[in-house]
Amino acid sequence: MESILFHGSNKIISNPTKAGGKVHNDFGQGFYCTPDIELAREWACTETPTAFANHYSFEPSYTLEVCNLSGPDYHVLNWLAVLMVNRVFETSHGIPAAIKKYIIQEFLPDLSGYDVIRGYRADDSYFQYSNLFLSGTISLEELSRTMRLGNLGEQVFLKSEKAFEALVFTSAEIVDRDVYLAKRLARERKAREAFQKIKHGPEVFDGIFAIDVYRNKMKNDDPRLR
């Protein structure tokens, strides 16, 4: 776990709180950071004219429990299950709704004992790809490869009061919005272009699809998911 983290925003956040985060975000309500300063600068650039990269460090006297959803102990369906209970997926009925319910039931990890969660960042494009998997348009293998496209990055999510107590604000820098908004858009464009190559590639009908997970009643320890 990195001792230095960054958060891109349109304002300086010297005292982050759990309540300050959006409720329907990737891993729930909390504070989202990155260990990559360049990504923080890009994420700071939105429709507002101001952009800041906030710098933080962890007080070394605290021992935090960290779950790395991108690590070898987890697979993409674990990440997707967490996403499904926090983000709004349009699956009110039919097969997609049954698949969603099954994925949450079988693959949702217990994150209650963790202070910090690390995992892929589901920006709008990644969220769309997750919906495409759920609707049967792309395979699990394609979704897994998509998560690494364009180097969109991982995020570090602070969820417990202990994590917030350990986090120390150190500084904030003004981000050149003209430079970093262009970099952000270029990174996202690269990811979309790479995804189109995967989506229309020769293996488009190969792999495990969402309906296969549901029909075969696949479990979390199935080696095919690794």
Q: Helical element count?
A: 8
Strand order of the largest sheet: 2-6-5-4
Unreliable stretches (pLDDT < 50, length at least 5) are none
Count of the domains: 1
How can the largest sheet be summarized?
A: 4 strands, mixed
Q: How much helicity do the residues have?
A: 25-40%
Would you report the number of β strands?
7
Question: Care to describe what's here?
Answer:
This protein is of the alpha+beta class. It has one domain. It is 38% helix and 16% strand. The chain contains eight helices and seven strands; from the N terminus they run ββαββααβααβαβαα. It has a four-stranded mixed sheet with strand order 2-6-5-4. Strands 1-3-7 form a three-stranded antiparallel sheet. It is globular and about 50 Å long.
